[in-house]
Specification:
The chain has 392 residues and is α+β, with helices and mostly antiparallel strands. The protein has helices at residues 2-8, 22-31, 55-64, 77-83, 88-104, 121-130, 144-150, 331-349; strands spanning 12-18, 36-42, 45-51, 68-75, 110-114, 158-166, 169-176, 190-194, 198-207, 209-210, 217-218, 223-226, 228-231, 234-237, 241-257, 259-265, 270-277, 280-283, 294-305, 308-328, 355-365, 368-380, 382-386. It folds into five domains: 2-82, Alpha-Beta Plaits (2-Layer Sandwich); 110-176, membrane protein fhac (Ubiquitin-like (UB roll)), CATH 3.10.20.310; 190-247, no CATH class; 253-259 and 328-377, no CATH class; 263-324, no CATH class. Helices cover 22% and strands 46% of the residues. It is elongated.
């Protein structure tokens, strides 16, 4: 491979010698210390390769051996340069390619983050950016030691962070601290009040003094546990906390109009492509705002190498103008939709098996389907407030 590269720069030719005495020619070439290789005999002729600069020296030797010579193939830089001597743009493009390649090779093309589960990738990238890890930056400008020492200073969830440059990829590796629940602060005295009306079913008080008993009915804002505790040493202030489970009544109302409006695409699609190269984004469209309302979605197409996404690609933003359409639904359709919304609200408000339906009222009023349901619930109504404070 090395010898072929060394021959390519000065150029070499494939010569065919026929007639006369080809053996004498080869002996004369050897005596003249002219490099010849890949000698092959084909019928009455002999073929061999030599440097382009030595071909002239072969002519007098060929005449003495009564041999006719002709060049079968030409290879190497001189012939390539002569072939494309009039295509200056090709040479300029090659020079530009070599320049861009030399300029981009030592720079960061891809940034990968691994090892994080609690800390967001955006937060880690912000830390790395402070130490020179950005797209397009030189690998030599990355402060690896500074990142290892100070990268965790302002991020309590990280115990270690480093960056491993690999060619054009900067791999950021982090180790997170084991998260433990914060200690309970008992220094601030407080009370516990009722969040809503109900009848006490169960009390689990871990701090403070109870003011109500199981079976009592309370209203919203009633003080259930107080942090003012009378002791032999006088009044002491404590933090009140715990769980007070009560039987409560709740109501959910769902309304579904029979006549409604919605938007749908007009069928027109406007494509707005943007070329991304490292940190440059080049829009290939006019930035004039659309005159009508529209929906949009994006589709990105980036180059990948071994599942690594390179910062070179096109992002297409599709704008779809929409129009407003008025429609109606039947009472059966409104009932089904109301039931679906009711189930979603129940899942958001109540724990499983902690509520029971007491009554249901539904019907159409003034073009609106109304579904109203009353519940009997079991829930924790304890809310901690500052000492002698009220519900916010």
């Amino acid at each position: 491979m090395v010898s072929q590269l060394l021959r390519w720069f000065p150029g070499w030719v494939r010569v065919e010698a026929e007639g006369g005495y080809p053996e004498r020619l080869l002996n004369a070439v050897t005596m003249a210390q002219i490099a010849a290789w890949n000698v092959r005999r084909k019928g009455e002729s002999v073929r061999f390769s030599c440097l382009a600069g030595d071909y002239r020296a072969l002519r007098p030797l060929a005449r003495k051996a009564c041999v006719r010579m002709r060049v079968r193939h030409k290879h190497g830089l001189p012939f390539w340069r002569h072939r494309y001597r009039r295509r200056k743009g090709l040479l300029v493009g090659l020079a530009l390619y070599l320049f861009v390649l030399a300029w981009l090779s030592p720079r960061i093309w891809v940034i990968e983050v691994s090892g994080n589960s609690v800390t967001s990738t955006e937060e880690i990238l912000a830390i790395a950016q402070q130490h020179g890890v950005v797209l397009g930056a030189r690998m030599d400008d990355v402060d690896v030691k500074g990142m290892q020492i100070g990268g965790t200073k302002d991020t309590p969830t990280l115990s270690f962070i480093t960056v491993n440059p690999s060619h054009c990829v900067a791999r950021i590796e982090v180790t997170e601290r084991e998260q433990s629940p914060p200690p309970l602060d008992l220094s601030q005295p407080s009370d516990v009040v009722a969040l809503r009306d109900g009848r006490i079913l169960q009390m689990e008080v871990y701090g403070g003094q109870k003011l109500v008993k199981v079976g009592e009915a309370v209203t919203a804002g009633t003080r259930l546990v107080t942090g003012r505790v009378e002791t032999e040493m006088g009044e002491q202030l404590y933090r009140s906390y715990g769980e007070i489970w009560a039987e409560t009544r709740r109501q959910i109302t769902v309304t579904v109009p029979l006549t409604f409006s919605y938007t749908e695409p007009t069928g027109e699609v406007i494509c707005q492509p943007t070329i991304t190269f490292l940190f440059w984004k080049i829009p290939l469209y006019s930035k004039l705002p659309l005159q009508t309302k529209s929906r949009q979605y994006q589709a990105s197409h980036f180059l990948t190498v071994n599942k690594t996404v390179l910062p070179l690609g096109v992002t297409n933003t599709y704008q779809m103008p929409v129009k407003t359409v008025t429609s109606t639904r039947t009472e059966e359709q409104a009932q089904a939709l109301a039931q679906q919304q009711l189930a979603e609200k129940e899942a958001a408000l109540f724990l499983p098996e902690s509520f029971a339906e007491l009554s249901r009222h539904e019907g159409v009023e003034d073009g609106v389907y109304i579904l109203r349901v009353d519940y009997l619930c079991r829930e924790n109504i304890a809310v901690e407030v500052p000492l002698d404070g009220q519900l916010p």
